[in-house]
Recover the amino acids of this structure.
């Protein structure tokens, strides 16, 4: 009887594929893809900036998106990596955490989505920007938009419409178990569908990440601190605003 109960408690093949195999495949592609990209496409490791083509929409959409996604990222780090027991230990109860996460998450998600919508509109309607848009860019925008929409929908529907869902007892332990190399797919089997779709879309986003312009998010411009000055030579007969000193002649 105990053996039969243990067999029934085992996760199904679908759960193992979705919540064990797929995360490790996505993680491997994410890491090895960046290594490959850095070794064989260093000159392509860039955002391929289109600022020269159009600036007005970029000045609105880019800050909205980048500041919004930064808050979203910090929220995911706090919610997925930091255990609930740690926040309880410092005096932040579940109710207080829930309110903070829902309010900040909704505002940050809305800003991120609004900024992304402006950037996509700009890329589609500004001719020179659209002409340099690649298939990778289109796929990246599609998956990124789906991931943000699903995450925002999960926050709004589960926490505002349905009265709340504590993902830190299911999704968060599952996420950490992947890195402990003790994955527990059972934690994800009863999770609301929007959270599951958000997690799957995030895995897809991480899989294509190394092959898109998103690689620039992993690069810090440290080289600018030690980069030598660029020397410009003037072609004018008169070098500078003042006449040259007597006794000195221009060479070359």
């Amino acid at each position: 009887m105990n053996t039969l109960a243990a067999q029934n408690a085992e996760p199904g093949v679908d759960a193992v594929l979705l919540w064990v195999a797929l995360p490790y495949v996505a993680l491997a592609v994410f890491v090895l893809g960046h290594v490959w990209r850095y070794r064989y496409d260093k000159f392509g490791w860039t955002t391929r900036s289109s600022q020269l083509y159009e600036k007005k929409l970029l000045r609105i959409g880019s800050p909205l998106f980048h500041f919004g996604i930064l808050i979203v990222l910090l929220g995911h780090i706090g919610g997925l990596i930091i255990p609930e027991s740690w926040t309880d230990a410092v005096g932040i109860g579940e109710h207080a955490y829930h309110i903070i996460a829902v309010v900040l998450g909704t505002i940050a998600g809305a800003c991120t989505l609004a900024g992304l919508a402006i950037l996509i509109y700009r890329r589609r309607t500004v001719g020179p920007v659209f002409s340099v848009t690649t298939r990778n860019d289109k796929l990246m925008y599609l998956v990124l938009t789906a991931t943000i929409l699903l995450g925002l929908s999960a926050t709004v529907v589960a926490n505002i419409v349905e009265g709340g869902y504590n993902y830190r007892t299911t999704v968060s332990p599952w996420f950490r178990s992947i890195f402990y190399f003790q994955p527990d797919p059972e934690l994800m089997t009863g999770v609301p569908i929007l959270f599951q779709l958000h997690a799957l879309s995030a895995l897809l986003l991480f899989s294509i990440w190394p092959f898109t312009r998103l690689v620039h998010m992993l690069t810090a411009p440290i080289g600018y601190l030690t980069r030598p000055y660029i020397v410009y030579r003037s072609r004018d007969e008169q070098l500078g605003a003042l006449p040259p000193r007597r006794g000195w002649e221009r060479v070359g």
Observations:
- The first helix runs from residue 2 to 9.
- Confidence is low (pLDDT under 50) at residues 1-8.
- Residues 123 and 190 are 39 Å apart (CA to CA).
